[in-house]
Amino acid sequence: MTTSPAGPGAPEPVTLVQAVDAALEAELAADPRVVLLGEDIGRMGGVFRATAGLQARFGENRVVDMPACEAGFVGAAVGMCLAGLRPVVELQFDSFSYPAFEQIVCHLARYTWRTAGATKMPAVLRIPYGGGTHAPELHSDSPEALFCHVPGLVVVTPSSPADAYSMLRWAIRHPDPVIFMEPKRLYRSTRGALSADPDPEGLPRARVVRPGTDVTIVSYGPSVPTCLEAAEALADRGTSAEILDLRVLWPLDQEAVLASVRRTRRCVVVHEAPRSCGVGAEVAAVIAEHAMFSLDGPVVRVAGLDTPFPMFMLEDLYLPDPERIVAAVEEALR
Amino acid sequence: MIGSPGVGSDSPASRAGHGILAVRAGSDSAEHAVDKLRLWKMMVQLRAYDERATLLQRQGRIGAYPTFWGEEAIQAATVLAVRDADWLFLSYRQNAVPVLRGLPPEQAWAYFRGDPRGFFDPSQFGCAPQCVPLATHLPHAVGWAVARRLQGGDEVALAFFGDGASSEGDAHEAMNLASVLRAPVVFLCTNNQWAISTPLSRQAAVDHLSARAAGYGMPGVTVDGYDPLAVFAAVTEAVDRARNGGGPSLVEASSYRIGPHATADDPSLYRDEAEAAVWREREPIGRFEQQLLGEGLLATQDITAEHERAASAMRAAGHRLDRMPAPTGEEMTAHVLAVPPPSWPGSSAPRFVTAEQ
Ligand SMILES: Cc1ncc(C[n+]2csc(CCOP(=O)(O)OP(=O)(O)O)c2C)c(N)n1
Ligand SMILES: [Mg+2]
Questions:
Q1: Residue B92: active-site member
Q2: Catalytic annotation, residues of A
Q3: Looking at the structure, do residues A163 and A25 belong to the same domain, yes or no?
Q4: Domain segments of chain B: what residues?
Q5: 3-class SS of residue A222
Q6: Which of A81, A229, A238, B5 has its CA 20 to 30 A from that of A302?
Q7: A324: burial class by Cβ within 10 Å (0-12, 13-18, 19+)?
Q8: pLDDT above 70 coverage of chain A, percent
């Protein structure tokens, strides 16, 4: 561990962005097929320093700075997969995945299918996403539902350094394209020890991050710590909230959602992406289809508004906060 | 013979209306040995494939089909100019190129009857599947070429695209990226003057699309796309340069789309079909045959025999297509993911979650 802040078993707990860096370093070291592509990822180490030190260790052919052309380099990643590489692409910010959308939808997600399974697309697109960082316009979007709606992609998002490390290592080894959404607000907000090596076979499952009995709060990524705060406030009022971190947004871990909801009989879904047609809508639909008669109240959504992400003076009004989550839980418990 | 872009636009030959731009007179300048008879036979095979496919469409045995009648010289000469290990990245207009590399024609046509068995393994033929969204396969060629170089290979990627596709952002991004990375890629633009109903003049404000190469810092050249030897020479030069570390090139093959855009198209709505008729007279196969006759490489009866042989092979392939059973529903969900999840709500895959009684 010369260039990276930490590795597995490192005594120091690390931030989420350091965990990303460590996972990239571990996979670059483990597999010569892994290459990194992105804007400013080389000498600079990326605008968030998620690739700090990696070009120095692995060279310019493995950690490749790209011109500003998201369609071009996501397309190049598709071509690299055709030749058997495992490209990991950094899209600098959420909104700058949009220029690559055609490549993602028409090629990355479809190539395995349109070659009758003969080719695999083991690429990872890393996308720092979400608000709450007082960022300029178009630097705070949560586009995860757009990707969930594209058949042929796996969409995952960690909420802790340990998950960032193990899930990214898993994603790089996975033979299908993975959209790896990184909650940039959490990049430096918490520290955690890194978990053991990933299991390359198993898709990560949803995880109960706080057990409870009265209500299930389903969430993911940047909203998980907010939900934990709300759960503390609810505990003070005598309500025991279970928090389920989805971790994988597509394919949805239906069993975990349904098992928890069947126990608590109440459900609130929290995300900061716009409310309509979001992941929360899918969670609510799955519950309605399979656990309707287990419910003692409506599924309530706490989400961003159906507006463009606001200018940042207003973002605290837009983002789900513990108060809104508590209010939603009260509605679900009524 | 003029290699640099722009210069050729001043030559009178390039100004003859929609005329083929004689920026480079390849026939007299081919320094590279070419098996002319093999090249001719490949062109004849392409013609037979194309005419059979059009017939299959008229008979309702396949769906809409984009004919490439008149573009045989470009496609055959290019396949001959690259090595088998080099990969070709295709648009829909090059749908028969994998057939030149061994894909059974009936499998190529299965694609056009909407049958997923028209999909194939790219590594088996060194051909990426035909690309429908314009120019989006160009970045793939760049990535593949960079990957092969990283893996220690010396292969070249060659990407076909059209005059319309040249306006897409992905074409620009791919050419710029290839040049920045000095990737071994050849960008081969078939400028057939039309993008469905849109003429070249509404597509670009340069005389030659090859002029764009200067902006990317790569060599660009325009050749007569009806002259297979000219195409062969230009592509060979570009491929050699790429293989030897000289980076990417842009080759513009001037052509004219003699046929409709696709079988459902009626070009008389937007162009003077008399113009197309002029080009039909100059089509590349007859012209090449005249040359080969003159050189004593062919006799008239060889020509008739080869066309008949190719046509009957394609007729037989059409019958094999008819005998392929219809695809089943399982083929719809197969291969969406290499590792399908156990529970997949939107598929017919078995559900592990059961609805409540
Ligand atoms: C991104 C995209 N936009 C539009 C289309 C619809 N379309 C199909 S072919 C075509 C014209 C393409 O012309 P050109 O690139 O010159 O190729 P040609 O058809 O002449 O071979 C268009 C607009 C498409 N396939 N992809
Ligand atoms: Mg055209």
A1: no
A2: 139
A3: yes
A4: 12-323
A5: helix
A6: A238
A7: middle
A8: 95
